[in-house]
Amino acid sequence: MQNRSIEVCLTPALFPYRQLGDALIVVVDVLRATTSICTAFEHGVEAILPVATLEEARAFKQQGYLVAAERDGQVLDFADFGNSAFNFMNNKVKGKTIVYSTTNGTQTIQMAAASGHLVSVGAFSNISALAKFACNWHGNLTVLCSGWKNRFNLEDTVFAGALAQRLIEEGKYQTRDDATQAAVGLWNQAKGDLQGYLLAAEHHERLKKLNLDDVLPYTFTLDTCLSVPVLEDGVLTDYRNRKL
Amino acid sequence: MQNRSIEVCLTPALFPYRQLGDALIVVVDVLRATTSICTAFEHGVEAILPVATLEEARAFKQQGYLVAAERDGQVLDFADFGNSAFNFMNNKVKGKTIVYSTTNGTQTIQMAAASGHLVSVGAFSNISALAKFACNWHGNLTVLCSGWKNRFNLEDTVFAGALAQRLIEEGKYQTRDDATQAAVGLWNQAKGDLQGYLLAAEHHERLKKLNLDDVLPYTFTLDTCLSVPVLEDGVLTDYRNRKL
After folding, report:
1. How many CB pairs under 8 A join A and B?
2. Per-residue pLDDT tens digits for A184-194
3. Do B153 and A189 touch (CB under 8 A)?
4. CA separation, residue A154 to residues A151, A194, A214 (Å)
5. Measured between CB atoms, does B205 come within 8 Å of chain A?
6. Residue A178: which of B149, B152, B178 has the nearest Cβ?
7. What pLDDT is stored for residue A237 in this prediction?
8. Could you read off the pLDDT of A3-13 as tens digits, one per residue?
9. In chain A, what are the domains?
10. Contact B15/B149 with Cβ under 8 angstroms?
11. Percent of chain A predicted with pLDDT > 90
């Protein structure tokens, strides 16, 4: 089982240069799309349609869908709510299909989907459930960090390192990838005080300015969710529900 | 002086997404172009013409220039020598202009030059001289890592972190850039045993396979050179010589 490889793409701009062509792609946008998606499934959302553009989101709204949409951290006027994980912790969303569009995360999911590989979604909130899913996966694994508008960010990279370290320590994956080694190194610097370490990150400043940092303690808490979102035909559902 | 900013571009693919438009660009390709360029000036080379393509290198050879050229670590058949720093430690190169083309480094220098900003070159070999030069620079600073074919690499990033940490500790620069913070973090993990840390890197494996790793102890030694290569009109010269 040791011959499966893991690599980390630090931003979507580096996705074309990945080396593992045949891989499960785990999309990461810790602040905040992938944390919110894991939370939504944990609270009974049936399905999520990630859409890249606001035009698509608006069109779905006109068809009667619930829409969660933001740009640069701000909820859009036509949307039912924004992308904070807190928005998905209520009965209003239970059993519903939600159309979802954010600054970085949903574009990254669509980019990953266009590669033709199986796509999943990861965050600190579902790390153990996702690690278990990845251990049972038969092939290679690419962690694709959403970053911020194609720039590197710390929180996605630290999560990538946390996931990679688990899979390597489990003996299920190996790596020869410098980005994975760097991510594991950063996770080991951060893990003792994850929130303190990531408080210095660029994106946190951005949320703070918008008064959107109330969700950070939740975001940086491991294993609040058991969901493993998986994309099929453009729709995210919880892998647990499929197995039932 | 504290309002000058530093940022790190982890690979040339991320250069379009840099935030500091008006900046000194320090190009880094520790293995091996920028280490070799610093070494060449330290041993009396007059000027270096970095060229991106092999066709350009071949054309200069036909005009009688000394040519150093490699691809994927292999010296090219028409070249006078390859890009190991050891090739530049002899009297054959003293006072000469050398045409230089490598897999990653020279393309990165040309990309930086095309941005219209002042371009310099850094490696562990000239870190103190370069830091002094950067402290006297009036504007922002972008460290541009060459990586490997647009992929992230550890050795360039660790160098970027070492340089950034010095400039920040000197009180000359500040950063709000996640990539800079990550690079500084990796430098602090690596600095106790730089060569041991970087032995695990992808590119070292590549050099080892080609029996080209004899130069690594020299490459990872700080301050073997006092040169500060600066690009003007497509030609690299040593900044020290300009001031005379």
Report:
1. 79
2. 999 999 999 99
3. no
4. 10, 11, 19
5. yes
6. B152
7. 97
8. 799 999 999 99
9. 6-243 (3.90.1560.10)
10. no
11. 77
